[in-house]
Amino acid sequence: MAVLIIAGLDTGGGAGLKADIETVSALNEHPLPVISAITYQNPKEVRGIFPVPPEVIGEQVRAVREVFDVTAVKIGLLHGGAIDVVAEETKGLTRVLDPVIASSSGFQFLSPEDVDVLKKKLVPGSIVTPNVPEAEALTGVKISSVGDMKKAVRVLVEELDAEAAVIKGGHLNFTDVLYWDGRDFEFPGESVKGFTHGTGCAFSSALATFIAKGLELPRAVEMAKRFVEGAIMFSNREGKAVNPLWELQRDAQRWKAMRELETAVDKLVKTGELLNRYIAEVGTNFALATDFNEVFAVKGRIVRYGKTIRPVGLVELNASDHLRRALLKMREFYPEVRAVINLRYSEELVERAEKLGLKVSFYDRREEPEEVKRAERGTMEWGIESAVRRLGEKPDVVYHLGDWGKEPMVLVFGGNAEEVVERVHRLIEA
Ligand SMILES: Nc1ncnc2c1ncn2[C@@H]1O[C@H](COP(=O)(O)OP(=O)(O)O)[C@@H](O)[C@H]1O
Ligand SMILES: Cc1ncc(COP(=O)(O)O)c(N)n1
């Protein structure tokens, strides 16, 4: 199905047309991108806007509407001169209107006069999706609670003739409120950590796409909200913005990481007789992180099995809590480190690591502050951090000598699972 998008270009690759194209594509529909304005912006600031002439916007829309079977359109950033044309050219479509008035960095895209034209020409008949400040600007209702949001959505529909309205709570309490078909609907949400530049764009294009797929409005709003939560959680660090491709990228990375770790575990098992005596009493595990910091390991760990070794279960997500925390802490300092294994401590192992030129550091649990000890779950993080600081550069191997009831251990890190296997093989002279 084709979804029409009329929006502005964000040169920073965070919001606008690029986020919209990715959103529609990620949801498996075909985007028809019509450009309304070129903005010169980066994640810090919007420097300016070059409006595409209204007749050029009209030509773009006509070119695709004549050929594609379009039912829904998402309208994002416009400029004063474009509002009339867009209203005219989108007649007969289900219109999702994201009334972009200002950027999150504070640049004013529409003047108060433009906002008046938008209210008269485009809000009527559209499904409007303002954020809190935009809803205030459109309705004059001051919004500081869900109760206020409910008042304002009604104004948008009953006084400004919108077909429906969703006020988004990203600037308030993460609850979105929809008014449709004579009643309101609440969509509560939790705060998600990540970049939020482009959330409004992703939300409105996801909404238009779910509508094009035939979902009823409340369900489409729910799905769009969940989509945006993922796009924040797995956000685009480079662009400091949402990542509409999150689900595809996450799943592709999971698949690759699983294969990589399975292959590496097989290799280790092949040298099981040599490794047997280095397997920790509590079991050895082998963990691998994706770029999104999801960590795979062996369910049930790798254990001694007669003279050799054996993985108890399959490679799974979150199958090791300890190694996951060690690896994620190490990645805070050295993001290129992706894999780690724990082996039973022995002096000869540490000496051999040093002889091989690996960078070795350690932590001493007796130095662990009382409050970290009491919290229990912070020990691993504290240990890795203290080992990193002690060495002053990236450690390849971190050991600790144990404590009451804690087995001494050697952690071997690497840039990928294969590198960890190679290091282990050199250490045990396989
Ligand atoms: N930090 C966050 N955690 C979870 N959801 C968020 C967060 N920020 C925004 N959202 C959600 O993202 C969508 C877009 O909201 P909002 O950020 O208010 O729009 P805009 O980008 O237009 O300012 C809404 O569904 C909102 O609830
Ligand atoms: C081209 C374009 N469209 C929309 C936004 C709003 O996004 P945000 O509120 O995250 O700045 C933007 N900054 N640029």
From TrEMBL:
Keywords: ATP-binding, Kinase, Multifunctional enzyme, Nucleotide-binding, Thiamine biosynthesis, Transferase. Residues 260-424 form the Thiamine-phosphate synthase ThiN domain. CDD domains: HMPP_kinase. Pathway: Cofactor biosynthesis; thiamine diphosphate biosynthesis; thiamine phosphate from 4-amino-2-methyl-5-diphosphomethylpyrimidine and 4-methyl-5-(2-phosphoethyl)-thiazole: step 1/1; Cofactor biosynthesis; thiamine diphosphate biosynthesis; 4-amino-2-methyl-5-diphosphomethylpyrimidine from 5-amino-1-(5-phospho-D-ribosyl)imidazole. Its EC number is 2.5.1.3, 2.7.1.49, 2.7.4.7. GO terms for biological process: thiamine biosynthetic process. Catalyzes the phosphorylation of hydroxymethylpyrimidine phosphate (HMP-P) to HMP-PP, and of HMP to HMP-P. NCBIfam families: HMP-P_kinase. In the N-terminal section; belongs to the ThiD family. In the C-terminal section; belongs to the ThiN family. This is Bifunctional thiamine biosynthesis protein ThiDN. The lineage of its organism: Archaea, Methanobacteriati, Methanobacteriota, Thermococci, Thermococcales.
